[in-house]
Amino acid sequence: MDEYLKQIFDLYLNDEIYSNQITHDKQYMALLEEIHNLQEKIIKSLKCNSKDSNMDLLVQNLFNTHMELSNLYRYYDFVEGFALGTLNGINCTKHDDKTVYKINKMTKDLILKNKNID
How many domains does the chain have? Predict the structure, then answer.
């Protein structure tokens, strides 16, 4: 059981693996770029002290983009948590049923595929 718990830590809780999966996501990179651009526009507006800069709109867009980024993190939490929860449930039952075996194999393959992201 200790080996199994170590596997859970290595696959899900290890920040390096988890961060690697998220930071290579195309949506993640696009959101970071959008956040950077919005921050630059806000800073430029503040420096110019312009009244027609639509500062409220820029700040709202920045907030919305941060929320999208948060949702992306929640998605990865759900996917990883669901896969590991399924593995835990299957491991606890120890049935020899073919369906359980197929689900177990599919979930392990998914986790191992995510672990090998370069």
Answer: 1
